[in-house]
Structures are given as C-alpha cells and as structure tokens.
Amino acid sequence: MTTFTEAFRLSQTGSTRATSYNWGNKILTLNGKTHVVWLDAPATICGRTYDHQSKTWGVIVRIDDGCDNHACPCITADAEGHIRLTFGPHGWYGEWNEARVKWKRSLQPGSLDAWEPVGEGYKSSWSNFGYNATAASIVHTPCGLDAVVCRGGEHPPQTMFHLQREIGGWTSAKALFGQEVEPQYTHNYGHIACATDGTLYAACHFYNVGGSDNQPVTGDRSKMRSYGAAVLKSTDLGATWCDLHGDPVDLPTTYNHRIAIPPFDRNIYINTIALDTLNTLWALTLNPGLEDNAVWLSRWVGQAWQTMQLERYMPESRTPVESMMTIDTHNRLHIVLTTVDTAAVGTDSHWGHPSSEVLYLRSNDGGQTFDATEVSPADPETANWLPSISRSSPHHPVDVPTIMYTHGDVGTGLRPDIRTEVRCVQLVEA
C-alpha cells in the first residue's frame, strides 16, 4: 500500500473550486522545490512552495485575481526554471479582461514570489490572448515557446490553439475541434501535452446541451452529455495537425472514429492525456454521471488503442465521478479520483456531494494492475474532492507526484461567500 504524508493545509480560505479543472497542471517540482497553485475565494490565484531540503512550506503568495471560481490557474516551466502561468475568465460575458486568457512568467527561476512586470520585460499585449477565451491549459515546448489550448470563439465555442511567438505575443487562434450545433453552451475543454521531441497532442470531449451525433437537444440542461472524446497531434508546433497515424486532418474537425479516444460514442469526459518516457500517449476517460462506474485507461500502441477498465480497483459501492493521471520518470502510473457513495447520493447531484472522497490508484507494471489507497480522511459531512496531481512536461518531469484536493462545500453560483480548505499530500517513497 502506498503511504502519504499527513495532509497539509495550504489554505483555509479556498474557493469552492480551489483545485478544480483537471485539464491544466497545478503542481510542479524543480530543483528540490515543489510549487503549487490554486484558487482562493472567490477568485484569487494563490501559490505556495515546499522546500524538500528543509521540509517546510513557504508563505502563501497571492499572485493575481481572476473573475470568478472558474479562473483555473495552470502552470508549466521553461528550461531555466521560470514558472509560466495561465488563468482566465469564465467565458465571453462580462468585462473582466475582455474575455482573454492572462499569461505570466516568474521573475526568478523556481520562484512564485514575483512576476515579470507587464510593459517592461514583457509588453502588456503579450500577457493577454484569445477571443471569448476560457479554460486554458499550457505546456512549454523544447524549442522555448509556450503552447496553449482553450475554449473560445463565437457560439458554439470551439477548442482553440495558441502558440507563443519568438518575437513576443501569441499567434491568432486556430480552431482544432468544433461541433455542428446551434449556438449554445458547449463544454469541450481542451487538454494539451508535449513530448520530449516537441510533438504536441491536443484533446477534448464533444459536449453540449443534450447532444448526440452532433445534434443538440435544447432547453433541458439535465440532458447535458458528451458524445465522445478525441485527440490530434502536431509535429510542427501547431502549424498543421494530424491523426495519430500521421494523416492530415481538416480543421476544425468534428467527432469521428478516426480521431476518437476509447470508448467510442459514449458519454465520456477526457480527464487526462499524458506521455511516458518513451513518448507513448496515454488517455484517461470517465463517465461523468452515475449511470455506470467505468474509468477507461487507454494507450496508443502505434496503430490502435489498447484500453482497460479500472472499476475493479474501486471500493465497493463507490462510483468515480472525476479523475486525473500522471506518469513518472519510472513509467509508474498515478491516478487520483473523486468517488462518491452511490447509495448516499441517490437522486441528488453527485457534484460536491458530502460523500465525496479522494482515491489514489498506482500501477508499477504499465497499467496491468493497480493498488488503491484512500487519500482523504473520511468525512461524511463535507466533500473531499477536486483532486489535482503533478503533471510532467519536457522541463519538469515527475519523479514523485504531489496531490492537492479541496475540502469543503460546493456552494452556489460563481462567487459564493464560502471558504474551503486546500489540502496537500505527498507520496512517501520506500
């Protein structure tokens, strides 16, 4: 059984979505220090640093303010150790930052304490990009440029790609994935990963108000669903995109089996794409409802996907409702999930249900078997949920991952007057 350090309380003033949104990385380790970012209530981007030599946490650093509890901070690092951060608006409405993603770079390598002054080392226009943009996910490529996917554009929103320019600023948005539906809400939040050779992978799920086969069902938000997930790759920094076989794809593409991630034609979310040390692509997909308890782990093996279901490793009577994965430098797989007590939920919403607990799965044999460990101390009155785990990138591989999660009530609305605890645990290696 895997053991963890005692949970450390990073903050007691966390947002109701403090560690939420699994498309972006929130934890990285560089040169003996682990840096984490989260959202304090209602929308303050915060960070904190753990020094592995002294075994102590630094003070909370308040980095910037977002618009609401969907600000979604995401970090990566470059070859010199500068931390690069994106966060953004919730959507196209309101005046906050004119619906553009914000970007920052740390002033010093390996530090969250100060950031490049806007308009000096970096022009003010460089720190904002996107159109009706939200939910950005960022990676730093081996060539020294950041790559980002986010949701944006006109209704219905699409999954957009942006590349940092060598002269500063960002390329115009390139639509990767879209849906042939009438203008309405869509939830196609994108994921991005970068291999050590610079190959980019972008993924999303195709989700709208009740839609299936690209046909919307409007007026009943209870029918919101996904009809599948998909992935594309690029070997030229996003100039062109292709399927995993290397065949070009016309953009923006809609859902089809040529680019689909298993299982096909199912109500699934893409929760993570990740690369192992051989640059093999892995994908974690999950049904977001309670109609089944399946989590699918898939690996691309050159010509096809190999897929396994992980529900046999789940505690009896509990259902996973969100997940996130990383692969460390020894090719061990680490998965964190929120699980709920199905009977306790009943006809209620599982979102932030008090029965929510964080489960950890670990595989030392390439996904053939997993060991399961409860991360959060059981609390039947308050949810332990929204887990986040260290994600690797070319300049911050994961040796031993760190896990964050939120302990607190779900709240109502986008800026509720509720405070949560942000907790952090670290794996203890034998």
Mind explaining what this structure looks like?
It is a single chain. By secondary structure, this protein is mostly beta strands. It has one domain (3-428): YVTN repeat-like/Quinoprotein amine dehydrogenase (Methylamine Dehydrogenase, Chain H, 7 Propeller). It contains one helix and 30 strands. The protein has one helix spanning 342-345, and strands spanning 3-4, 8-14, 27-30, 33-40, 44-51, 56-57, 61-65, 74-77, 83-87, 101-105, 128-129, 134-140, 146-152, 158-163, 174-177, 191-194, 200-208, 225-234, 260-261, 269-275, 281-286, 295-300, 305-309, 318-327, 333-341, 357-363, 371-374, 384-389, 402-407, 420-428. The strands form seven sheets. Strands 1, 2, 28, 29 and 30 form a five-stranded antiparallel β-sheet that branches. Strands 3, 4, 5, 6 and 7 form a five-stranded antiparallel β-sheet that branches. The longest helix has 4 residues, at 342-345. It is globular. The relative contact order is 0.14. The model has no long low-confidence stretch (mean pLDDT 91).
Question: Ranges with pLDDT <50 over ≥5 residues?
Answer: none
CATH superfamily placement: YVTN repeat-like/Quinoprotein amine dehydrogenase
Radius of gyration equals: 20 Å
Q: Specify the CATH class.
A: Mainly Beta
What is the number of independent domains? 1
The best one-word shape is globular
Q: If you average the pLDDT, what whole number results?
A: 91
How far apart lie the N and C ends? 11 Å
Strand content: 35-45%
Q: Give the biggest sheet.
A: 5 strands, antiparallel
User: Any idea what the CATH architecture is?
Assistant: 7 Propeller
Number of helices: 1
